[in-house]
Specification:
Number of strands: 3
Order of helices and strands: HHEEEH
Structural class: alpha+beta
Strand content: 15-25%
Strand order of the largest sheet: 1-2-3
Number of helices: 3
Helix content: 10-25%
Oligomer: single chain
Shape: globular
């Protein structure tokens, strides 16, 4: 299991999405609600994905292994600012969870990378 830094939460800024059934809840009913919200609003989620003009492509449930495993949400970022050529400079990989992430969730994502 990868060594997860315990001080990571000091650098985290919470992002609140309006997806819970009742005000004050933190758990989303199903992951598909998160998936739909992100796909529908990706260009306005700059805190998560950066500038809209850098988003080249995105998709959900992207297969990555012969066993049928998939990435919940994948985004390609492209810009000329780093090389002077329109090249991909970043990939965002999202592992969606209905509730707060824990060490197991984070380890699952790290294993896929």
């Amino acid at each position: 299991m990868p060594n997860i830094r315990k001080d990571v939460s000091k650098n985290v800024e919470p992002i609140i999405l309006p997806l819970c059934k009742n005000e004050g809840e933190t758990k989303v009913f199903i992951e598909d609600a998160i998936r739909y919200y992100i796909a529908k609003n990706i260009k306005s989620l700059e805190k998560i994905f950066g500038k809209e003009e850098d988003i080249e492509w995105y998709s959900n449930n992207v297969p990555y292994h012969i066993s049928g495993k998939s990435i919940d949400f994948l985004v390609y970022h492209k810009n000329m600012k780093y090389t002077g050529y329109p090249l991909r400079y970043q990939y965002s990989v999202l592992e969606l969870k209905k509730d707060n992430a824990n060490e197991e969730s984070i380890s699952q994502l790290i294993k896929r990378l």
